[in-house]
Specification:
CATH topology: Aminopeptidase
Strand order of the largest sheet: 1-2-3-4-5-6-8-7
CATH superfamily: Gcn5-related N-acetyltransferase (GNAT)
Distance between the termini: 9 Å
Number of helices: 4
CATH architecture: 3-Layer(aba) Sandwich
Strand content: 25-35%
């Protein structure tokens, strides 16, 4: 997947691509460390990007990475059910409010549906109003409050999206 999204006049043209080699790892790590409160080791990033490279999608403006979503898909306790999981989402502050975060999540959802996900879960800080608005607009349901979930002591909300595999489409157009 290497595609561009048509942008309104005056906004940069953003292309989207999946993870394909170690050279992108530093950019992924830089975006996430700048935007998320949790510290992750290089091994955490490698766990996701090498096991599910198709579910690590990067947004790029010219030569600069400006957004990333890192996901996985795994069995739930029932071996017949698959759960997609959005582990990390970050967009460079200079590129926010241009639909990049929404596009990254939408592309990840489509990829997880194509891989037969039954549901998609994530956690986000309860105080992250922008993230909650984004996920609410995409149909995620707030399922549970997790007290002092993050290292910084902030509560999280667990969100879930039930997806229909029958409507999945593997294309990312």
């Amino acid at each position: 997947m290497n595609e561009s999204k048509q942008s309104p006049p005056g906004t940069p043209e953003i292309s989207y691509t999946v993870f394909n080699d170690e050279s992108q790892l530093k950019a992924i790590q830089g975006l996430i460390e700048k935007e998320l409160s949790e510290p992750y080791s290089i091994y955490t990033y490698r766990y996701f990007v090498y096991n599910w490279p198709q579910l690590c999608i990067l947004a790029q403006h010219e030569e600069r990475y400006v957004g990333v979503i890192v996901c996985k898909i795994d069995h739930l306790s029932n071996p017949e059910l698959w759960q997609g999981y959005i582990a990390m989402l970050a967009v460079d502050p200079e590129y926010r409010r241009q639909g990049i975060g929404s596009t990254l999540v939408e592309k990840a959802i489509e990829m997880m549906k194509a891989e037969q996900a039954d549901e998609i879960a994530l956690e986000t800080e309860q105080s992250n109003k922008a993230a909650l608005r984004l996920y609410d607009s995409l149909g995620f349901i707030r399922e549970q409050r997790l007290l002092r979930y993050y290292i910084n002591g902030v509560d999280a909300l667990r969100l879930n999206l039930t997806v229909s595999r029958r409507s999945s489409d593997a294309s990312l157009s």
